[in-house]
Design a protein that fits this description.
The complex is a heterodimer of chains A (287) and B (465). Chain A contains 15 helices and no strands. Chain A is mainly α. In chain B, 71% of the residues lie in helices and 1% in strands. At the A-B interface, α1, α4, α5, α6 and α7 of A face α7, α9, α10, α11 and α12 of B.
């Protein structure tokens, strides 16, 4: 009995050691990011160095970001928030509509539509970049108008990403719909007054995922806003600091900007983590 | 097995032709038996419904016909007529004046749109004919036609799906279907940096680009393509399975009895999902750079003399990418596994323990089979997602290190998708980018189809539910 206990204690100790090691590895880059963001580009050095903790803590990088005479960072930040909010709003609405129609209603062409969208999803997204760029240009939604353009493109095709949401609707018993219909409720009434209030977790999940995606959108955003500094989002603007302006010592300013981007998004995510877990787990099991 | 599939296909084809035949017969019968209103509707859409009082349906049909002819006559025809050559007169500068000619890009794009418009036109015509037939039959039986108000209200009840789906379907058509068809067609043209319309027109070249893709001599890019394809598959395999098993292991470790602060460990891991990838990956990229933190400390501590070329050595770059991807990917799998592991009945483990099974045996014969069964489709989507995992590769290495041995500026860590991106953005080599895009589709589709049919949870779907 005793040997079993000691065995167990050793097992737990090993477990803790592994977990602590994992935590250090996982946190190290983030700690580094925060620490290096306090290294002044003006008085110390803004580029790459071989030490982690800055010699003098300073807020120079943050001051730089908030100084609109030197950088458009605040504008990029605003652009990204605008894109994220609108994409999140419209994408959630559209995915709810599509999911309800595909989950609850049976109509001619339903399976065809689902198969067709599945096949479409297998084409790589970047394939169509030049064509999309041209279409947006026709509407004047590139360069200066890149922000509505980016919102339009993300929202227009999001109907195909209905899987997780539809999976959730499928778990709501159909008997509820039938009962409501016997009582004389129309389909739209069932949708608005019954299904939507019951779907809070999946609505939050969809909105959260949609909100987080634009923060990383580098590829298409850089293509559409090409050369037009005021319509960049944070990813496009700051990626330039690492790739092309690197030699000028923009690295610590990138770190500071990264911290400012990461904090609100991370907090939001942590706050809504429960719903995220529910969404991905449900989605994974149903495929 | 193959025989059965063939039979199935045949029956699907025959079903299709049967339906087509039925459709033609219906149109014929409608015309012969129809009254004058119906017969006129064959030319003027929706005339029958309008005369019978079905104003809403009739006007919708009529409008679509007017719109079609307006588009074709005023706009579409000039492009469609040049579709076979994609334009012959280039835009030139004569003296100081620019003489505008054809624009191959526009001809191709609007030509495709015209073809879709014609298909839609035929479909609407057929709907129009059927609507007439339906109304006539109803009237013959002495029944009343639904009122306009009923027709409108049905959009929120019986036909609610039409209301819900119309906007998404149009959006997907304009921003996904149309561009994809356009790009597939570009693969059969010579649209590249030497053929930028309107000053230099491009035209059809048949299968030349595909021949280029599989030719291994001269300027052919066959060798490079195979190399990139191979790395794409190896990457997807490693990325998927390292994340899967390590994520499962971490989840089991945290779930273990006796481990405290479960929530804290999970929260730490989940940070990599929460922080936007362009921040975390670009930072990690700099961390592993030749003059980055890791090399800096290793040199300072005297462990190594020269920096380790994490990103500049081809093999090392690939290994580093896979390792960094573990950092990004494990938490995702951990979250999923945590929930699923709790679904496994505890008494299974208990009885195994009584039978004297050790932890490894329990994992092998209880946990793993269950997890694989439940997460089969998830593994497949992860795999195809990794085939197209642009962010990790591009933010870390941009496909580098490049080599003169590889054609079209491909690098050793390029996936097909990043290669495609570079061709499009840096080289404006649209013809080959389109071919690569089609290849990505083929690879994804074949793997999905084969694996999907092998999945136990698909074969045994009913049992699982």
């Amino acid at each position: 009995m005793k040997s079993y206990k000691t065995k167990r204690a050793i097992g737990n100790a090993v477990g803790y050691i592994i977990l602590i090691l994992i935590s250090i590895i996982w946190l190290f880059p983030f700690v580094g990011l925060v620490l290096q963001s306090f290294r002044s580009y003006a008085t110390e050095y803004g580029g790459m160095v071989d030490y982690l903790v800055p010699k003098h803590f300073s807020l120079d990088n943050y001051k730089f970001l908030f100084d609109s005479s030197q950088t458009n960072y605040l504008l990029w930040y605003k652009n990204t928030i605008i894109i994220a909010v609108f994409v999140s709003l419209f994408q959630t609405i559209i995915q709810l509509c599509v999911s309800y129609a595909l989950s609850r209603m049976r109509f001619a062409g339903r399976t065809f539509l689902m198969r067709f969208w599945l096949v479409l999803g297998m084409f790589p997204g970047f394939l169509t970049m030049i064509c999309l760029y041209f279409l947006l240009k026709q509407f004047g939604l590139t360069q200066a108008g890149a922000i509505p353009g980016l919102i339009l493109v993300s929202v227009a095709s999001c109907g195909m990403g209905y899987y997780v949401c539809k999976g959730y609707f499928d778990t709501i018993p159909k008997a509820l719909d039938e009962a409501a219909m016997i009582d004389g409720a129309t389909r739209s009434r069932i949708f608005f007054t019954m299904i939507i209030p019951m779907s809070k977790p999946i609505i939050i999940y969809t909105a959260l995922v949609a909100f987080m995606a634009p923060w990383c959108d580098y590829v298409f955003a850089s293509y559409v806003a090409f050369g037009h500094d005021t319509s960049y989002n944070v990813a496009v603007g700051m990626t330039r600091w690492v790739w092309t302006n690197d030699y000028q010592g923009y690295f610590t300013r990138f770190c500071a900007g990264g911290v400012l981007v990461a904090i609100p998004v991370t907090l939001l995510f942590m706050f809504l983590q429960k719903y995220y877990v529910e969404g991905v787990t449900g989605g994974a099991v149903k495929g | 097995m193959a025989n059965g599939a063939e039979k199935k296909k045949k029956s699907a084809a025959s079903l299709f032709f049967e339906a087509l035949g039925k459709g033609f017969k219906e149109v014929g019968v409608t015309f012969i038996e129809g009254d004058i209103k119906t017969k006129l509707s064959f030319l003027i859409f929706g005339l029958g419904p309008i005369l019978r009082g079905q104003i809403l349906i009739g006007i919708a049909l009529l409008c679509s016909e007017v719109l079609f002819f307006y588009y074709m006559a005023g706009f579409g025809w000039q492009y469609l007529s040049k579709f076979s050559t994609l334009g012959t007169v280039a835009t030139k500068k004569v003296g100081r004046k620019t003489v505008y000619g054809d624009n191959s890009f526009l001809i191709l794009l609007f030509g495709v749109l015209c073809i879709f418009a014609i298909i839609a036109f035929i479909a609407i015509w057929y709907i129009n004919v059927r609507e007439n037939r339906k109304e006539e039959l109803l009237l013959k039986q002495g029944k009343k036609l639904p009122s306009n108000k009923d027709v409108f209200l049905s959009l929120f009840d019986k036909n609610f799906h039409k209301t819900l789906l119309s906007l998404p379907v149009i959006g997907i058509f304009v921003f996904t279907v149309l561009p994809i068809v356009f790009m597939i067609l570009v693969a059969f043209t010579n649209y590249d940096k030497n053929h930028q319309s309107p000053s230099n027109l491009f035209t059809w070249v048949g299968l030349e680009n595909f021949k280029n893709l599989v030719s291994f001599s001269g300027a052919g890019i066959g060798g490079t393509f195979l190399q990139v394809l191979l790395w794409t598959l190896v990457w997807a395999l490693f990325a998927t399975f390292t994340n899967y098993f390590l994520g499962l292991a971490v989840a089991m470790l945290i779930n273990k009895k006796g481990i405290k602060f479960k929530k804290l460990w999970r929260t730490i891991l989940v940070l990599t999902i929460a922080v936007p990838q362009f921040v975390s990956l670009l930072y990690v990229m700099k961390m592993f750079a030749n003059d980055g933190l890791i090399n800096g400390y290793l040199i300072k501590w005297g462990i190594i003399k020269n920096y380790i070329p994490f990103w500049t050595d081809p093999m090392l770059a690939r290994i580093t990418i896979i390792i960094v991807n573990i950092w990004i990917g494990i938490p995702y799998m951990m979250l999923i596994a945590t929930g699923l592991l709790m679904n496994i009945p505890e008494d299974l483990y208990e009885s195994a323990r009584i039978d004297g099974a050790n932890p490894w045996q329990m994992f092998r014969s209880i946990t793993l089979p269950y997890m694989l069964f439940v997460t089969g489709p998830f593994l497949l989507t992860q795999f195809t997602g990794n085939l197209n995992n642009f962010n990790v590769i591009y933010l870390l290495t941009q496909g580098k290190p490049q080599s003169v041995n590889l054609a079209e500026k491909a690098g050793y860590s390029d996936l097909l998708i990043t290669w495609l991106y570079k061709m499009t953005v840096n080289d404006t080599n649209y013809r080959m980018a389109a071919v690569i895009g089609i290849m990505v589709f083929v690879v994804t589709a074949v793997i999905s189809l084969v694996v999907y049919n092998m999945l136990p949870s698909v074969k045994d779907e009913e049992g699982f539910q």
